[in-house]
C-alpha cells in the first residue's frame, strides 16, 4: 500500500482507538452541515427577503457545489496532500465558512438606525455567500476522504472490525442529521438581537459553526494515533488521461485506411495496458446508465427548498408546534426504519414470489415512486391554494363590515349594488366590488341612517366598523393595507376601541398605544401565534385584563375591546384572514414515497455500481454518482430561474412528469444492460498475465541455456 506514517496504535474493544475520533468527528461535521442546511431556505426568504424562486435557485446552487467539490477533494488527497492533511486543511476552511455565515446573519451588523433591519443588506449577503462557498469547499472536499481514512486505520486481517466501523460511521451520519434537523429550526424560531428581537439565525448558524470547530479539535486530538498513507496517485486522473488519449488517437486515425477497432477505447492500447482499458470499459458501461439519474436528484433535493416553503403555508400544530424546516426530519427517521424493513422483509418476500427484482429494476421503481411523491406534493399544494383567501384583482377592492353595536344593521352599497344585513357584534366576510362602480354606502341601524362616500383604491382591502348609539351611528373607515397572507407563518393582530373613552392597549410586552373611541391600531406581528397572550386595557380609573385565545398561524385578526366587568376585559375576536388550515402531517405521505424511492434508488444504485466495476475503480464511480447529484440540483436552479410557471402545483406536476419520462427512458436503457462479474474478468486477466509471465520465463531460461552451451 505504498509508504505510510504509522501513529501509535492503541486498541480499544478490538478496534483501533483512532477510529472513535473519526466517528465523533463525522457526527459533529454532519450535525454542522445538516443543521445549517435545514434553515438555509428560510434564511434566504425571511432574513435576506429573496423571493421563493431566487431562494430556491441559490439553495440548489450551493447543494450542487457541495457535490462537485468532492471530486476536487479526492484528487487533492490522492495526488498531493494525502487524506489526513486534506481533511485537516479543508475542515479549517469549513469551520471558517460556518463562522462567516453566522456573522453574516447578524442584522445588528449594519443596523445603524437600530430599526431591526440591516441598513446595508449587501454586506450580509456578501458574507453569507462567502461563508457558503467556503462551506461547500470544506464539506465537499472532505466527503470522499473521511470514510476512506477510517478504513485505512485497520489491518488486513480486521475485515469484521472494518465492517462494524462503517456501520458506526453511517449511524453517526444519520444521528447528526436527525438531531441537527430537529434542534436548529427550534433555535432559528427563537428570538434574539441587540436592538430588536427577531428570528435567531446567528445562533442557528453559530451552533453548527461550534460543532464544526469541535469536529476539527476532535480530529486533531487523535492525530498521533492515525495511520497516514502517502498519496498514491488518483485513479480518476489516470482514467481521464487514458480516455483522452483514446479520443485523440482515434481522431488522428480517422481516415478509412486505418482498420476499425472493436471499441473506441482500444485506440489507447498503444500507450495503456489491456487490463486498465478493460476496467475503464466496465466503468463506462455503468456511467452510461448514470445519464438519466440527475432527474431523480432534481426531485429529491427539493425537500430542503420547495417542500420547506410549502410547509410555511401549513398548520404545524401537533399538540406542540413543528417548525416548517423541521419537517425535513421525516426523511432520516423514515430511512432508519425503512432500510432494515426493506432488506429483511420486502426483498425476501419478493424473492419468495420468484420475481427477478434486479438492481436496475429497483432503481426504476425508485424513480417511479419519486415521481409519485411529487404528484402527491402537487395535490397537497392544490389543497393549500384552495384554503388561501382570495385577494382583490386589478380594478377590484374588497370591503368587510363589523357591527360593534347592540342592534342589527343593514348596509346598502350604492348605486343599488347590494344590501347586506349585519347582526350585533358580528362581521361579514370580505365582499368584492368593482372600484369604478361602487361610489358610496348607507348604514341603517336603530332608525338612524348614515351615508359614507367612498374612494376606493384597486387591489386594496377595507374594513367598515360601525355601531348605533342613541340618536346617531358612529363609523370608522379602515384601509387594511394587507394584500397577502402574513409572511413566515406569523399572525397579525390589531385592536379597535369600542369604549366611549380613550384606552391604552398592550398585549404582553407589545404596546399598541392609546386608542380613541372607535379608532383602530395598526396590525402588529404576533411573535408566537400558538401562545395565549394577556391583553390589558388601561381605563381612566382602573385596568382590565383578559387572556387571548390562541392565534392561528398565518392568520390576521381584529380584536374589539367591548366592556370591562369586575376588571375582566370583554373582547370579541374577528378573523380578517383565516389561519393556515392544511396540516403539516399531510406532507408525510409525500415524504414516505420519496424515502421509499431513496431506499430503492440511492442505496441500490451505489451497490449496483460497485458490483459492476473493479474495486480499484470505486472512486471513479463515486465521482460519477456525486456528479449526477450536482447536475440534478443544477436542473432545479435552471427551472426556478427561467420557469414561467406561476402556480407551484403546476411546477410539482412538471417535475413529476419529467421524472416519469426519465424513468421510462431508464427502464429501456436498463433492459439492454447485461450484468457482468468484474472479478471473473479480472481473474481472466490475471490468468493470462501469469501464462504470459511463465512463457517469458521459459523463453528466458531457454535463451540462458543456449547461451551457456555456446
TrEMBL record:
GO terms for cellular component: apical plasma membrane; brush border. Keywords: Membrane, Peptide transport, Protein transport, Symport, Transmembrane, Transmembrane helix, Transport. It is a multi-pass membrane protein. Residues 687-710 are annotated as: Disordered. It is found in: Apical cell membrane; Membrane. SUPFAM superfamilies: MFS general substrate transporter. The keyword Hydrolase does not apply. The chain crosses the membrane at residues 6-24, 54-75, 87-106, 121-142, 163-183, 203-222, 282-300, 329-350, 362-382, 623-645, 652-676. Coiled coil: none annotated. NCBIfam families: 2A1704. Belongs to the major facilitator superfamily. Proton-dependent oligopeptide transporter (POT/PTR) (TC 2.A.17) family. Interacts (via extracellular domain region) with trypsin. This is Solute carrier family 15 member 1. It comes from Serinus canaria (Island canary). The lineage of its organism: Eukaryota, Metazoa, Chordata, Craniata, Vertebrata.
Amino acid at each position: 500500500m505504498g509508504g505510510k506514517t504509522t501513529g501509535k496504535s492503541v486498541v480499544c474493544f478490538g478496534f483501533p482507538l483512532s477510529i472513535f475520533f473519526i466517528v465523533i468527528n463525522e457526527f459533529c461535521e454532519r450535525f454542522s452541515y445538516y443543521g445549517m442546511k435545514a434553515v438555509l431556505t428560510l434564511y434566504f426568504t425571511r432574513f435576506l427577503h429573496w423571493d421563493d424562486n431566487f431562494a430556491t435557485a441559490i439553495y440548489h446552487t450551493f447543494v450542487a457545489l457541495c457535490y462537485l467539490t468532492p471530486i476536487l477533494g479526492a484528487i487533492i488527497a490522492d495526488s498531493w496532500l494525502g487524506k489526513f492533511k486534506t481533511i485537516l486543511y479543508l475542515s479549517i476552511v469549513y469551520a471558517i465558512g460556518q463562522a462567516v455565515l453566522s456573522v453574516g446573519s447578524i442584522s445588528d451588523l449594519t443596523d445603524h438606525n437600530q430599526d431591526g433591519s440591516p441598513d446595508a443588506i449587501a454586506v450580509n449577503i456578501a458574507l453569507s455567500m462567502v461563508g457558503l462557498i467556503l462551506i461547500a469547499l470544506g464539506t465537499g472536499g472532505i466527503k470522499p476522504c473521511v470514510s476512506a481514512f477510517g478504513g485505512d486505520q485497520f489491518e488486513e486481517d480486521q475485515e469484521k472490525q472494518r465492517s462494524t466501523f462503517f456501520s458506526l460511521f453511517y449511524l453517526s451520519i444519520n444521528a447528526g442529521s436527525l438531531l441537527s434537523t430537529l434542534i436548529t429550526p427550534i433555535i432559528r424560531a427563537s428570538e434574539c438581537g441587540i436592538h430588536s428581537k427577531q428570528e435567531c439565525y446567528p445562533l442557528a448558524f453559530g451552533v453548527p459553526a461550534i460543532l464544526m470547530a469541535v469536529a476539527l479539535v476532535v480530529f486533531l486530538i487523535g492525530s498521533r494515533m492515525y495511520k497516514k498513507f502517502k498519496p498514491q496517485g488518483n485513479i480518476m486522473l489516470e482514467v481521464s488521461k487514458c480516455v483522452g488519449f483514446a479520443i485523440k488517437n482515434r481522431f488522428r486515425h480517422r481516415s478509412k485506411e486505418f482498420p476499425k477497432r472493436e471499441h473506441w477505447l482500444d485506440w489507447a492500447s498503444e500507450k495503456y495496458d489491456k487490463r486498465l482499458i478493460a476496467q475503464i470499459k466496465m466503468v463506462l458501461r455503468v456511467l452510461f446508465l448514470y445519464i438519466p439519474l440527475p432527474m431523480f436528484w432534481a426531485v429529491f433535493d427539493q425537500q430542503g427548498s420547495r417542500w420547506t416553503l410549502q410547509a410555511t403555508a401549513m398548520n404545524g400544530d401537533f399538540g406542540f408546534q413543528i417548525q416548517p424546516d423541521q419537517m425535513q426530519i421525516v426523511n432520516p427517521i423514515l430511512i432508519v426504519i425503512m432500510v432494515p424493513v426493506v432488506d429483511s422483509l420486502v426483498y425476501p418476500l419478493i424473492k419468495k414470489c420468484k420475481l427477478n427484482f434486479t438492481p436496475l429494476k429497483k432503481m426504476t421503481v425508485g424513480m417511479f415512486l419519486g415521481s409519485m411523491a411529487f404528484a402527491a406534493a402537487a395535490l397537497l399544494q392544490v389543497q393549500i391554494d384552495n384554503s388561501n383567501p382570495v385577494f382583490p384583482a386589478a380594478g377590484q377592492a374588497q370591503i368587510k363590515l363589523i357591527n360593534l353595536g347592540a342592534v342589527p344593521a343593514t348596509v346598502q352599497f350604492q348605486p343599488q349594488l347590494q344590501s347586506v344585513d349585519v347582526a350585533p357584534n358580528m362581521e361579514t366576510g370580505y365582499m368584492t366590488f368593482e372600484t369604478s362602480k361602487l361610489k358610496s354606502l348607507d348604514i341603517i341601524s336603530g332608525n338612524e341612517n348614515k351615508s359614507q362616500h367612498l374612494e376606493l383604491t384597486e387591489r386594496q382591502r377595507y374594513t367598515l366598523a360601525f355601531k348605533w348609539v342613541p340618536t346617531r351611528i358612529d363609523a370608522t373607515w379602515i384601509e387594511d393595507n394587507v394584500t397577502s397572507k402574513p409572511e413566515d407563518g406569523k399572525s397579525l393582530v390589531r385592536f379597535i376601541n369600542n369604549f366611549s373613552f380613550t384606552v391604552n392597549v398592550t398585549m404582553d410586552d407589545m404596546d399598541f398605544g392609546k386608542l380613541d373611541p372607535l379608532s383602530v391600531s395598526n396590525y402588529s406581528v404576533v411573535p408566537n401565534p400558538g401562545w395565549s397572550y394577556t391583553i390589558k386595557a388601561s381605563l381612566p380609573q382602573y385596568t382590565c385584563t383578559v387572556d387571548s385565545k390562541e392565534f392561528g398561524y398565518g392568520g390576521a385578526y381584529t380584536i374589539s375591546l367591548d366592556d370591562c366587568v369586575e376588571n375582566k376585559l370583554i373582547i370579541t375576536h374577528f378573523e380578517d384572514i383565516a389561519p393556515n388550515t392544511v396540516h403539516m402531517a399531510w406532507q408525510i405521505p409525500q415524504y414516505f414515497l420519496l424515502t421509499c424511492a431513496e431506499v430503492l434508488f440511492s442505496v441500490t444504485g451505489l451497490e449496483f455500481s460497485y458490483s459492476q466495476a473493479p474495486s480499484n475503480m470505486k472512486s471513479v464511480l463515486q465521482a460519477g454518482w456525486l456528479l449526477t447529484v450536482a447536475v440534478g440540483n443544477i436542473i432545479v436552479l435552471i427551472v426556478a430561474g427561467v420557469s414561467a410557471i406561476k402556480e407551484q402545483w403546476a411546477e410539482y406536476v412538471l417535475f413529476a412528469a419529467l421524472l416519469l419520462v426519465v424513468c421510462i427512458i431508464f427502464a429501456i436503457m436498463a433492459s439492454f444492460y447485461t450484468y457482468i462479474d468484474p472479478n471473473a474478468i479480472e481473474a481472466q486477466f490475471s490468468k493470462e498475465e501469469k501464462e504470459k509471465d511463465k512463457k517469458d520465463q521459459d523463453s528466458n531460461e531457454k535463451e540462458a541455456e543456449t547461451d551457456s552451451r555456446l
